[in-house]
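2024-03-11 09:14:02 INFO queue: dequeued item Transketolase-like pyrimidine-binding domain-containing protein, len=234
2024-03-11 09:14:02 INFO validating residues
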Amino acid sequence: MVEISTRETYGKTLVELGKENKGIVVLDADLSPSTMTHFFGQEFPDRFFNCGLEEQNMIGVAAGLAASGKTVFASTFAVFASCRCFDQLRMCLSQTGLNVKIVATHGGITVGEDGTSHQAIEDLALYCSLPGFTVIVPADAIETAEAVKVAANTYGPFYIRLSRPRTPLVYSEDYHFTLGKAVTVREGRDAAVIAVGIMVAKALEAADVLAKQGIGCRVINMHTLKPLDEEAIA
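2024-03-11 09:14:37 INFO prediction written
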């Protein structure tokens, strides 16, 4: 199975968007080689701002730029994008509804050698608790590119969670992402698994194992956690 990094796809998609929209600016918390926003910085140095290891300040800067009419993408690791700056997220973005897209990499427990201090396990719960935020966890690189483009063209605060390792491709190039609409990636009548992010590929692997035992397992990619597609799980 082909594996592609979602964070690298994010960085390259930013460059595409930057060529189309001069109102897009990108912020990073001194982690651009890891979040891959350095692709945008190299292409558009006058629209790229390294805020240093100060996520709280980065959110304030992002809010200010958005208030002046910019479409802002701000990136860091998921653990820092949630726990370190939650008050700023609540006050500067959730309560104002400003057009800022937080795209965090290294989500979950897949950060490997980065260690437990960098494992983001609270981020999705925190962001889903914030009024006005849209929360997306793409399943693969193809869905990542689509989700980032949709976020860029949809006003309001977004949180998009990406992973550190390369991720198996779930979709083909002709895939169309629809915000807030879950996708059934495998049919089955005996059981169902609802997954997000890198766990979609794992769920498909589990469905293959169950199929060999005569159990048909439906796999649903709930890429948008907020707003939740309630009809898909009714």
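2024-03-11 09:14:37 INFO annotate: The chain has nine helices and twelve strands.
2024-03-11 09:14:38 INFO item closed
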